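Fill in residues.
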């Protein structure tokens, strides 16, 4: 075998370990022999019953051994469920910083606040790779590129664990959608699994081998991730993971089988464990497997100081001024300036009046619904911050314009008529999900607004059709919303206005409802036919619910009037996202596209602020002058956005996900590839995920991965590349110059094209660096690219194919600035 071409798992892990990040001058995350010895000595004292108690999270039963209880809190963007903490930007925004140092400092701050609140285990970071824009949890991951997600996830993990807490990195592996998330069978090639979905964890494990890893919900190639021996082997043997694994809440269907396959901790606390006492002893799983599980838990506890540094008594407020300043810095670093025609931004002295439109006050979304939501506490809203910064020199007005992505007021009985002309709608209830057969019950319902079974004696799965008419009271654009737990479709005059599915109306850990939205134009006094169908089949077991809401009076005309009277207009739009939901449409929800077009028609200097979890359609792009991607910025989003708008700070975020031109682009656009058919979703794009897909398919995105504008300009100069055979890496250097009139921040991206024999993607990100330069400033950057980042997974092993490797400097995946080739092998 040619050793230069094939890397064994042991060699690959050793190479990765050589890249351990350094904090405070010392490598973090390496398990020394003393830690191993302490764990072995304690394990030798434990009985099988005590080992099982530890694995089952029965910490009371092992307290006499001095083993601390794991106290857990969700913490990808701050501490979920706590008051007096700092709400940082969501993980995809952290990824948009392209800044390992910053993300590491955010991790350290979250770790410090976790300890201050009495926790020693933070459930985060999340490094799931974004496969499709449909995913409702894409904001909880770190983008579409495995190197970016891995490097930043490693920085966050090291930062967290530097504060004597265990990080739990999520979710291993190939977890990319919420639809049918508990049971989906993900069919993914071995190559894509290793090169894309497991790859971020490789970087994390190299930096922090004694962390913990949460196994994902879906099946992977026919076997639940929590019970999949191949996945555990990839993680523990292939990646050299020394810590312990845990299941996500309710993941899998057999925790004993999971323990046998390689699960170490049986759940996230005692309430999440269904293994009965004694269920892991007496031959249920091999004794050696029980020993391994218990030992991994102990090693991780010792390595991260849980034995030696007990958590303090929880404090009421653990947010510090330094953390709040860091949150502000993180938003600036993650804010992406997507478009800026005619130098509309920053706002200059010529702007004497400014119209702020949309959800920019307390209704601005600071976080994502579900397990990553963090209470922002007392914070400065974008509207207030803009007013503060404008002072007396700029007149700031506000017009609501849109309610954003919120459920609307329930349609009243007074405007509804059933098929006989009485108030309400005619309802026909059926057994089963498809409205077939003879109705179980036909009656008139006063309206549609229920959260419990609305009719007597319905079976476990049922459906209903409401029909009748609606009498509009106003003329113009009408908004309608559905808030379902299940699947619902609203048709008006035979045309579908709103349609979609929600497993639940809101996730129980977050503050946001998950509505479905639509619009149509109606005329006052002219009745329209209404058909509304619903089934509870996709809802959380034992639940149901549907609210039909509307907004008959459009807020857009008043917003356009406000915009017309101002020198410039800033329009805030949003989209709710969160756990247990996906996005059916790429469009902004409700009337927000119409609002942007109306404001742009009234004021040519219109700036759009997208407060969303990821890409949305931008049909109005050529109508506006500037577009900012804000993400969900946590407590610092108002002050940071204001600093960017007025030019006090340079927007320095870059896109960690590709923005498609329309919903047909990118992977996961068909039923089989998303959301799947008959319970199976097929990743037929293989390794072509994110920008790789667009490159391979020849699709032109709206905004490319890595894209982001600055208020200045940069030039990438001469490029030098050399292969260091002895140290098994490529060295690359490039000069970067600020060619513009002011200080600014650039993200230099390095992409590699592999030899044809590798059958790889057209190009892959292999390095990135963020730097700030004064006007006319210049710096020479040097990159070291490990050999494993140039390898591909072939025939169940990592292969470094001999041939010509081409390296390119770039400001995005589609904007290459210089390139040079080198022969390897």
């Amino acid at each position: 075998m040619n050793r230069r071409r094939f890397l064994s798992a042991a060699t690959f892990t050793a190479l990765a370990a050589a890249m351990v990040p350094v904090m405070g001058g010392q490598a973090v995350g390496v398990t020394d022999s003393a830690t191993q010895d302490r764990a072995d000595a304690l394990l030798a004292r434990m009985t099988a019953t005590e080992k099982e108690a530890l694995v089952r999270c029965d910490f009371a039963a092992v307290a006499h051994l001095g083993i601390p209880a794991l106290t857990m809190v969700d913490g990808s963007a701050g501490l979920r469920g706590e008051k007096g903490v700092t709400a940082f930007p969501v993980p995809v925004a952290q990824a948009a910083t392209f800044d390992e140092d910053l993300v590491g400092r955010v991790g350290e701050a979250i770790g410090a606040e976790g300890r201050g609140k009495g926790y020693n285990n933070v459930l985060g970071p999340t490094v799931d790779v974004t496969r499709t824009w449909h995913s409702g949890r894409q904001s909880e991951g770190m983008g579409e590129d495995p190197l970016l997600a891995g490097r930043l996830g490693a920085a966050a993990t090291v930062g967290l664990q530097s504060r004597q807490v265990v990080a739990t990195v999520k979710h291993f592996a190939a977890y990319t959608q919420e639809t049918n998330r508990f049971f989906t069978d993900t069919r993914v090639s071995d190559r894509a699994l290793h090169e894309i979905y497991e790859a971020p964890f490789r970087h994390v494990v190299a930096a922090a081998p004694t962390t913990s890893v949460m196994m994902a919900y879906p099946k992977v190639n026919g076997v639940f991730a929590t019970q999949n021996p191949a996945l555990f082997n990839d993680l523990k043997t292939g990646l050299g993971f020394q810590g312990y694994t845990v299941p996500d809440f309710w993941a899998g269907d057999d925790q004993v089988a999971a323990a046998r396959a390689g699960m170490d901790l049986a759940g996230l606390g005692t309430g999440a464990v269904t293994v009965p006492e004694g269920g892991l002893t007496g031959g249920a799983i091999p004794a050696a497997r029980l020993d391994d599980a218990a030992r991994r838990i102990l090693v991780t506890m010792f390595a991260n100081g849980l034995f030696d540094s007990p958590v303090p008594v929880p404090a009421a407020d653990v947010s510090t001024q330094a953390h709040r300043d860091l949150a502000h810095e993180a938003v600036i670093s993650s804010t992406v300036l997507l478009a800026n025609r005619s130098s509309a931004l920053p706002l200059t002295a010529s702007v004497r009046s400014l119209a702020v439109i949309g959800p920019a006050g307390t209704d601005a979304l600071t976080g994502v619904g579900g397990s990553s939501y963090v209470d922002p506490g007392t914070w400065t809203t974008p509207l207030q911050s803009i007013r503060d910064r404008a002072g007396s020199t700029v007149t700031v007005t506000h017009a609501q314009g849109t309610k954003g992505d919120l459920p609307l007021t329930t349609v009243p009985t007074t405007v509804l008529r059933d098929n006989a002309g009485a108030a309400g709608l005619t309802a026909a209830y059926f057994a089963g999900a498809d409205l077939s057969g003879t109705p179980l019950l036909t009656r008139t319902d006063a309206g549609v607004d229920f959260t419990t079974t609305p009719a007597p004696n319905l079976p476990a799965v049922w459906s209903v059709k409401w029909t009748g008419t609606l009498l509009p009271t106003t003329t113009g654009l009408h908004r309608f919303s559905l808030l379902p737990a299940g699947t619902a479709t609203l048709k008006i005059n035979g045309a579908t206005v709103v349609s979609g599915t929600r497993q639940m109306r809101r996730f129980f850990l977050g503050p946001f409802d998950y509505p479905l939205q639509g619009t149509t134009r109606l005329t006052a006094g002219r009745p329209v036919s209404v058909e509304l169908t619903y089934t509870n089949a996709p809802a959380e077991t034992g639940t149901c619910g549907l609210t039909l809401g509307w907004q008959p009076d459009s807020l857009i005309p008043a917003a356009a009037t406000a915009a017309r009277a101002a020198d410039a207009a800033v329009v805030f739009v949003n989209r709710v996202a969160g756990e247990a939901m996906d996005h059916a449409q790429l469009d902004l929800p409700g009337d927000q596209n119409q609002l942007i077009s109306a404001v742009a028609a009234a004021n040519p200097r219109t700036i759009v602020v997208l407060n969303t979890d990821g890409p949305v359609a931008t049909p109005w792009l050529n109508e506006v002058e500037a577009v900012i991607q804000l993400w969900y910025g946590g407590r610092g989003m108002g002050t940071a956005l204001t600093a960017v708008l007025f030019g006090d700070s340079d927007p320095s975020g870059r896109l960690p996900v590709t923005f498609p031109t329309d919903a047909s682009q990118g992977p996961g656009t068909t039923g089989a590839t998303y959301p799947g058919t008959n319970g199976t979703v097929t990743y037929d794009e293989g390794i072509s995920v994110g920008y790789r897909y667009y490159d391979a398919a020849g699709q032109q995105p709206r905004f490319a991965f890595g894209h982001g504008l600055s208020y200045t300009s940069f030039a990438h100069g001469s490029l030098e590349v050399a292969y260091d055979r002895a140290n098994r890496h490529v060295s690359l250097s490039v000069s970067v110059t600020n060619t513009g009139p002011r200080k600014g921040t650039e993200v230099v991206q390095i992409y590699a094209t592999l030899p044809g024999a590798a059958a790889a993607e057209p190009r892959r990100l292999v390095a990135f660096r963020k730097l700030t330069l004064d006007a006319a400033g210049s710096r020479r950057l040097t990159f070291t690219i490990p050999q494993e980042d140039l390898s591909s997974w072939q025939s169940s092993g990592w292969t470094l194919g001999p041939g010509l490797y081409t390296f390119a400097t770039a400001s995005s995946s589609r904007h290459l600035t210089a390139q040079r080739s080198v022969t390897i092998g």
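The chain has four domains: 34-303, 322-405+556-670+689-697, 409-551, 714-824.
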